[in-house]
Amino acid sequence: MPDRPETWAWLATWLEHNWPGLYAGGLAIIIAALRVMYGGGGIRQIALEAPLCGALALSATHGLPLIGIPISTAPFFGGVIGLLGIEFTRAAAKRFFTRKEGTA
């Protein structure tokens, strides 16, 4: 790979364009893991909750421009998802979409 500078250029460009989402996902993983540890959860709960929060934050950040929110706010949303946890986020989304479904 050192003999192919175009590969490094491609990787640097890709990271530049996707950094907010990656940062949000990583932040959600760290915050969720620390939250579970603080709450007395075990290794199994940390191993399940933290990656789920990271994946949810990563997917949510790619939807932000669709609703008019700048991608630069992605780390904030990642932190919030990590802090609230997967169960709270799932329940809130279910309430939101059930309400939207009933009014449509």
Shape: flat
What gap, in angstroms, lies between the N and C termini?
53 Å
Low-pLDDT stretches? none
The largest pleated sheet is described as: none
**Number of self-contained structural domains:** 1
The run of helices and strands is: HHHH
Structural class: mainly alpha
* Helical amount: over 70%
- Would you count the extended β strands for me? 0
Structure description:
The chain has helices at 5-38, 43-61, 74-84, 86-103. With 104 residues, the chain is mostly helical. It has one domain (5-103). Helix 1 (5-38) crosses helix 2 (43-61), helix 1 runs parallel beside helix 3 and helix 2 packs antiparallel against helix 3. The termini are far apart.
What distinguishing features does this structure have?
104 residues; mainly alpha; 4 helices; 0% strand; flat
In short:
The chain is an all-alpha fold and 104 residues long. Helices cover 79% and strands 0% of the residues.
Which SSEs are present, and which pair or pack?
Blueprint: H1 5-38, H2 43-61, H3 74-84, H4 86-103
